[in-house]
Design the sequence.
């Protein structure tokens, strides 16, 4: 039988392994944010959500799967905002809308927003809005990641600077090829407390 101490030690080592950067990654996180606790939410009805959750969960304070009912984010957002934790996710646009509206009353803003639209011609179009210091590098990373884009974002988003609203920032567009029978649109996002 595994002791509690051995279990916790193994979990902390697994979390450290996920911080190993991907080859060729050129995103520059601020060290202080690596230790800022966050809640991860993802739509686990799709393989993209499962991959994102697998990458984010080892370093998240808590990770949550969101199914068909986007209202399940309400409790997660309430807990996270009360504790001052970041929220990041890969969800449907409606789940983001609910989380964003609820978090706004607690001084949170959308500091990163990515739209990921599957096209019928095998292309995946990414539209990213975030800090100009790293958003172009993130676009290059996504363009090279192909089908691994959810895992790439799950590993990367938690360590990006998260201190200003991205609503007025210019968007960066990129595309990549995708395999499989994917359809629809997903959004990735970070909600964080921002200064007044």
Sequence:
């Amino acid at each position: 039988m595994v002791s509690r101490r051995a279990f916790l030690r193994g979990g902390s080592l697994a979390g450290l392994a996920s911080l190993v950067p991907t080859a060729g990654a050129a995103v520059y996180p601020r060290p202080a944010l690596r230790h800022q606790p966050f809640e991860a939410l993802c739509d686990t009805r799709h393989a993209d959500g499962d991959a994102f959750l697998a990458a984010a969960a080892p370093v998240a304070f808590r990770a949550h799967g969101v199914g068909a009912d986007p209202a399940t984010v309400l409790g997660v957002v309430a807990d996270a905002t009360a504790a001052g934790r970041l929220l990041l996710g890969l969800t449907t646009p409606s789940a983001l809308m609910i989380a964003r509206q609820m978090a706004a009353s607690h001084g949170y803003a959308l500091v990163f927003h990515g739209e990921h639209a599957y096209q019928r011609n095998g292309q995946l179009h990414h539209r990213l809005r975030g800090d100009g210091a790293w958003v172009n590098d993130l676009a290059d990373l996504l363009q090279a990641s192909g089908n691994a884009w959810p895992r790439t974002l799950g590993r990367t988003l938690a360590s990006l600077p998260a201190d200003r609203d991205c609503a007025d920032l210019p968007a960066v567009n990129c595309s990549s090829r995708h395999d499989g029978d994917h359809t629809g649109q997903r959004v990735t996002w970070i909600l964080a407390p921002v200064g007044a």
Confidence is low (pLDDT under 50) at residues 10-34.
